[in-house]
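Table S2 (continued). Query chain:
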Amino acid sequence: MQLLVVGAGEMGRWFARQSGADAVAFADRDPATARAAADIGDARAVDLDTDETFDAVCLAVPMSATPTAIGTHAGRASEAVVDVAGEMRDAVAALRTHAEGLERASFHPLFSAANAPGNVPVVVDNAGPTVDRFRAALEAAGNEVFETTPAAHDRAMETVQAKAHTAILAYALAAEDVDPRFHTSLSGPLSTLVEGTLDNTPEVYAEIQERFEGASSVAEAAAEIADADHRTFVDLYGEAGE
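Corresponding output:
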């Protein structure tokens, strides 16, 4: 299988390594990034506007750019088009529009490449042997691939990404430096989460906050806790455990 990966960053390289493809080509808006990705392993770099065709195309670009990228590059695939954008409503809609007649799937690795393997929800919009091969290769690499729907996925991302990131970053902005010996069984792990979050790319987190609802509800909950009297706080504490 000949695979074109559009977007030669961290997740594009990860998918290329895990895909089970026989040959991989990278394309990126920054040709140097494509060449750097191609230098890692047996791959090559091609121009973003290449007129070559491939068995499969994977879009590994920012979620806001994914629908347009699918429209631009789907025609370079003869068998399948997939993405690893992390948003599924618009991505799957673009796949249906621009990859009609081809196998189509939207994968979302719920981790950074450095933390692989992990859970990978997928929407298989049009199944076939190439998509099956991708899924089998991801599972063979130790990932748990499970099927979902665009609505269920994006609704879950409101909690596990937008709300979680808001809570962690809010704590990071509000917390003061303390002697580590003061940390409790709660604050210690929370500080570790802060460190892990801030060790990533802020633009990726910004896109998540722009795409998924959730931040405002965390802010409202925090304000309610901050303004609560003793009885109200106890009630909120109980509500949180329900």
